[in-house]
Amino acid sequence: MSDLYMQLDEAQLNHIVGLFADLSPRIIRLAFHRAQRRTEGSVRQQAVRMMQQRLQLASGAQKRLRKRVQAHLKPSAADASEMKYWFGLNDLDPALFRGGIRRVKGGLMIRGAYYERAFVAVLHGKKKVMQRVGKAAYPVVSLTVPISDEMTTALEDELFERIPDIFLRHFETDLRGRVTSDAWKTGWSEKNLAAAEKNIQVW
Q1: Nearest-CA neighbor of 44 among 158, 159, 151?
Q2: S-S: 88 plus which of 1, 52, 61, 128, CB 3.0-4.6 Å?
Q3: Residues 131, 158: one domain?
């Protein structure tokens, strides 16, 4: 996992806010938070697509992979234009990789690596790769394949540099939607606005 700090272009951020000066600061704050969540989703989706291509994952792996990719953005307490970016990758199920799993004497071969005392079991109707901890039949653990440091670095380098643009695009799109929406033109009730604010982080 990685903790990095991303600096939004303050001039661009202020320019976008200035375009929607008629909206109240509370509504802009809600739009900022929603852009945050959408940016996280975009980063996660692009990371999954990139991993599937570069790690040669099996077709249909995206749905399972999305659950194992984490991406979070959090504004700095001192400066809303500074965002803390957390990105983490969990180890992957061997079944996600193309080429399958090959049984060999004493264990399994997975992506060219030998795993001693590993075996394939069927649990609840699904194949699961397990590994014995010792020479005895039990205990056993689920076997996972770690993500290479090179893959993590590539994701950080190639995705991270695009995050500010992704965020600003979502932020402006959300604000434009609020300006053109009849519901936002007539204004939310104080009760609804207060309820929405309870669900977001303070920035």
Answers
A1: 159
A2: 1
A3: no
3-state DSSP call for residue 128? strand
Among 142, 158, 178, residue at a domain's last position: 142
Tens digit of pLDDT for each residue in 155-183? 888 888 888 999 999 999 999 988 876 55
153 and 138 in a common domain: no
> Is residue 127 located within the same domain as residue 168?
no
SS3 call for 26: helix
Q: Say how many domains are in the chain.
A: 2
Q: What pTM was estimated for this model as a whole?
A: 0.70
Instruction: List, for residues 121-151, the tens digit of each pLDDT value.
Output: 988 888 889 999 998 989 999 998 888 788 8
Q: Do 57 and 19 sit in the same domain of this protein?
A: yes
Contact by Cβ (8 Å): 92, 65: yes
Which tops the pLDDT comparison, 145 or 104? 104
- Joined together, the tokens standing for residue 145 give 């394949």
What range does the domain containing 106 cover?
A: 95-142
Helix (H, G, I), strand (E, B) or coil at 177: helix
Instruction: Answer whether 95's CB lies under 8 Å from 129's CB.
Output: yes
191: its two tokens: 């009760």
